[in-house]
Design brief:
two-stranded antiparallel sheet; alpha/beta; binds sodium ion; Rossmann fold; binds guanosine-5',3'-tetraphosphate; eight-stranded mixed sheet; 10 strands
Length: 192
C-alpha cells in the first residue's frame, strides 16, 4: 500500500535492534484517515470471504481492526493481555511469548463473543515473530472457529512470523512488507 509505505518513509524512525518506531501515526498518536484507508484495503481484500468477526490483540491492533470492522460491518473483538488469576472458566486463553521483552503473557477472549460458526479475520499492527498471531490461532483451535486469514499493517519480512503463518496454509495479507531495517534505512520488499 503506497500511502502507508510513504508514511513509514516520512514519519517512521529506525531504532537499534531492528525496531521501526511508528508512534507518529500508529502506536501512540493515531492518524484516523490513514487507519480508515488501511481498513478500506483490508475490507477490499477480504470482501468475498464472508467474515463474521475480526479479532486482534490490545492495544495497537485495535485501531486498524476497528476501521476494518467498520467497513466489513462486523464486530471487532480485542484479546486482552492480563495475568489470569482463577476465573478462567469463561475465557479462552493462550500464551504469547515476547522475544523483545523475554516474557510470557497470556491473552484472553471471553467465550461469549466467539462461536464455532464464526469466520474470523485476524488483524494486527506488526508482524515480527508472529507470537501474537499464533496466540490468536491457539484460541481459534479452542473455540473451533475458522480463520479466513490474517491482515497485518506492517510485516517485518526478515523476521520469521510471516513465513510461519504461510507455512500453515493460512492466507496472509500485509500492507507494508519490510525487507530490511539495516543501517537505519527502511527497505520495502516492493522496492525490488
Ligand atoms: P510478534 O511475535 O507478535 O510478531 O511480536 P514480538 O514478540 O516480536 O514483539 C513484541 C511486541 O513488539 C509486539 O507488540 C509487536 O507488535 C511489537 N513489535 C515488533 N517489532 C516491532 C517494530 O519493529 N516496531 C514496533 N513499533 N513494534 C514492534 P505488543 O507490545 O505485544 O503490542 P502493543 O501493546 O504495542 O499492541
Ligand atoms: Na500489536
Ligand atoms: Na506493538
Amino acid at each position: 500500500m503506497k500511502e502507508l509505505e510513504e508514511r513509514i518513509k516520512a514519519d517512521g524512525t529506525v531504532l537499534s535492534g531492528d525496531v521501526l518506531k511508528v508512534d507518529q501515526f500508529l502506536n501512540h498518536q493515531v492518524d484516523p484517515d490513514l487507519m480508515f484507508a488501511i481498513g478500506q484495503r483490508f475490507a477490499q481484500l477480504f470482501a468475498d470471504n464472508n467474515i463474521t468477526k475480526i479479532i486482534t490483540v490490545e492495544s495497537s491492533g485495535i485501531a486498524p481492526a476497528i476501521m476494518t470492522g467498520l467497513q466489513l460491518h462486523v464486530p471487532v473483538i480485542f484479546a486482552r493481555k492480563h495475568k489470569s488469576l482463577t476465573l478462567t472458566d469463561d475465557l479462552y486463553t493462550a500464551n504469547v511469548r515476547s522475544f523483545t521483552k523475554q516474557t510470557d503473557n497470556q491473552i484472553t477472549i471471553s467465550k461469549k463473543y466467539l462461536t464455532s460458526s464464526d469466520n474470523v479475520l485476524i488483524i494486527d499492527d506488526f508482524l515480527a515473530n508472529g507470537q501474537a498471531v499464533f496466540g490468536l490461532l491457539e484460541i481459534a483451535k479452542q473455540a473451533k472457529f475458522n480463520v479466513a486469514g490474517v491482515g497485518i499493517v506492517i510485516e517485518k519480512s526478515f523476521q520469521p512470523g510471516a513465513q510461519k503463518i504461510k507455512d500453515q496454509g493460512i492466507r496472509l495479507e500485509s500492507l507494508a512488507k519490510i525487507k530490511s531495517l539495516a543501517d537505519g534505512q527502511v527497505t520495502f520488499m516492493s522496492a525490488e
